[in-house]
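Revision sheet: structure tokens.
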Amino acid sequence: QVQLVESGGGLVQAGGSLRLSCAASGRTFNTYTMGWFRQAPGEDREFVAAISRSGGDTDYADAVKVRFTISRDNAKNTVYLQMNSPKPEDTGVYYCAADKWATKAQDMGVGGISSWGQGTKVTVSS
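Predicted:
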């Protein structure tokens, strides 16, 4: 199982930008479809974005399309989430996730999540 560690969370003003990173352990990072999920206070965890093993295929929740960009660097075992023009409703704990079975970004989590990170908190002020 891959181990995931997120970083980059913090306080950001609405309309600013923030980049989250997720570093993975092990030599099999490029065999996982990777994704970001988030959980706002009192809410269920929800899908944000996913990227295929090669990085050639991405998928986004409607709420973040155009504003957020997911990318990965397989040489560095890292996946990123660039958050541009965040809104207060983007506030929450952001979790990195790895899916061993999905072959397309759109299938992220359908067969279950292989590993979760511990989460990084993002607060967007208005």
